[in-house]
Structure to design on (518 residues):
């Protein structure tokens, strides 16, 4: 399906020169697994090396490119002390400082008496000007090889700045000249260059303003990406609408049993959403609908009503969640309700052992288990349904389009309902989800307490823990959400494991640890 001209861009990053298995894993962590991912790894800053004064005029704290003569080497007597190379021009001295240096290497690149061009940050140490680990050391004839304005890329552990620059340049060499697909007059009004030229400009900023998303190069690339995304979504939508749907109707007996078992009445938004979804299912076109509602607004119950409509019509339905803990939460919510309706539901996750999976898979295949709840495990090759008619996908942004289609491919003309708790305006919804039909839950079921949000500084952590203690004494449950699973040397945010150990010491035997992968 992909044009041959793009093959080199969608090749794995390990196909680039010097990228072995170890480095490929680091590159994937930084940018992505393919060559094209490096093209979208744009500079976040720049180093301007145009300042090229005499030594005496070099300003401490600035980047300078200086031409100096090597006067002598001062090896360190201790590994804890730096190796120094004294250089000078006709206005003053500059000391180059190296930690953990190899003396033979420095003697080779900085021979005494030779002229060298060095570029880096100039610092003042006492009365001396110095440059610690210059970014560039070249012979005077090679001065033009130093980029006067150098892009600075975001990094990750295991990759140096020079390696990333080299990898990006190698990726750029593989970027083809593409046939222009934008209107020439429109490009002229926007001051946009062709795609490849814009890509090269984005990776070679000359001024700080060229790092802005609104710069001509970056806005051209962003527009191309958005347009390509919309065209891809439109093609998928057109394909889905081109495939004949199936009419799924039910009298609502199973749904009525569930409603009788509920301890609350559905909201007006829930009733309206159920009506919209069942109307879609009853039509001869395939449903592709977004159900958006805040946490606690009752999306799961709405989805269950749609699933029961499919079951009552004689078919099956599946609900897929991005994590095991969320799948188990849905199952815990749904199972008592389906029991009241006399409908069997089963949970399938990647952690289920073969012995326990076998009866579940057999139930899906022969139709004796009409409702399925699970994780990515639901669209694995070993999972087959007798007659899957409805696929419900929770937190759909956590899944790729292909994963959604893989689940839909488990049946014939499967209707798709996707759920999200992310509040988004219609314009952004169209960008993210294509031209999906949408149902929104605007209120919460009665009896839900109002949300009390407070921001507390880390200095008052003990007060927060005391508040947790009061809630536990009152019989409540508490979730303490952290942004990281493990402690980070880079990010100054709390890790779940660190907080778990801390709280376990305060509330011994009453604290559990869960992560997104559970």
């Amino acid at each position: 399906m992909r044009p041959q001209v793009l093959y080199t861009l969608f090749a794995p990053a390990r196909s680039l020169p010097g990228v072995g298995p170890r480095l490929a894993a680091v590159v994937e962590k930084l940018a992505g697994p393919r060559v094209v991912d490096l093209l979208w790894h744009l500079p976040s800053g720049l180093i301007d090396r145009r300042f090229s004064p005499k030594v005496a005029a070099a300003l401490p704290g600035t980047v300078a490119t200086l031409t100096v003569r090597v006067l002598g080497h001062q090896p360190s007597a201790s590994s804890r002390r730096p190796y120094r190379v004294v250089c000078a021009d006709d206005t003053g001295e500059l000391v180059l400082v190296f930690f953990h240096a190899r003396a033979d290497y420095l003697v080779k690149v900085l021979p005494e008496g030779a002229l060298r061009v060095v570029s880096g940050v100039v610092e003042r140490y006492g009365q001396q000007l110095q440059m610690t680990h210059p970014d560039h050391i070249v012979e005077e004839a090679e001065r033009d090889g130093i980029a006067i304005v150098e892009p600075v890329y975001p990094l990750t552990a295991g990759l140096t700045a020079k390696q990333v620059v080299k990898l990006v340049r190698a990726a750029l060499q593989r970027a083809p000249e593409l046939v222009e697909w934008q209107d020439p007059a429109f490009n002229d009004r926007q001051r946009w260059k062709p795609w490849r030229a814009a890509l090269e400009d984005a990776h070679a900023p000359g001024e700080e303003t060229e790092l802005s998303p609104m710069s001509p190069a970056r806005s051209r690339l962003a527009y191309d990406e958005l347009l390509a995304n919309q065209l891809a979504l439109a093609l998928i939508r057109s394909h889905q609408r081109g495939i004949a749907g199936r009419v799924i109707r039910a009298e609502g007996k199973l749904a009525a049993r569930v409603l009788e078992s509920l301890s609350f009445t559905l909201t007006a938004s829930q009733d309206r959403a159920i009506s919209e979804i069942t109307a879609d299912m009853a039509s001869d076109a395939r449903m592709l609908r977004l159900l958006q509602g805040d946490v606690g607004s009752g999306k799961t119950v709405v989805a269950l009503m749609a699933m029961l409509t499919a079951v009552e019509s004689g078919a099956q339905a599946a609900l897929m969640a991005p994590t095991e803990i969320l799948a188990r939460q849905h199952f815990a919510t749904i199972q008592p309700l389906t029991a009241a309706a006399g409908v069997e539901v089963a949970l399938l996750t990647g952690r289920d052992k073969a012995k326990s999976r076998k009866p579940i898979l057999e139930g899906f295949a022969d139709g004796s288990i009409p409702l399925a709840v699970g994780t990515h495990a639901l669209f694995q090759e070993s999972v087959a349904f007798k007659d899957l008619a409805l696929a419900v996908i929770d937190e759909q942004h956590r899944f790729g389009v292909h994963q959604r289609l893989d689940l839909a491919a488990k049946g014939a003309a499967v209707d798709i309902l996707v759920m999200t708790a992310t509040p988004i305006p219609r314009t952004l919804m169209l960008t993210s989800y294509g031209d999906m039909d949408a149902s929104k839950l605007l209120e919460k079921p009665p009896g839900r307490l109002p949300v009390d949000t407070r921001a507390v500084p880390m200095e008052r952590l003990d007060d927060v823990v005391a508040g947790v203690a009061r809630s536990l004494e009152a019989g409540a449950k508490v979730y303490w959400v952290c942004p990281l699973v493990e402690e980070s040397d880079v990010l100054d945010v709390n890790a779940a494991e660190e907080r778990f150990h801390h709280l376990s010491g305060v509330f011994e035997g009453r604290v559990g640890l869960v992560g997104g992968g559970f």
Remarks:
- The first strand starts at residue 45 and ends at 48.
- The chain has four domains: 4-45+154-205, 50-146, 253-441, 458-506.
- Confidence is low (pLDDT under 50) at residues 489-493.
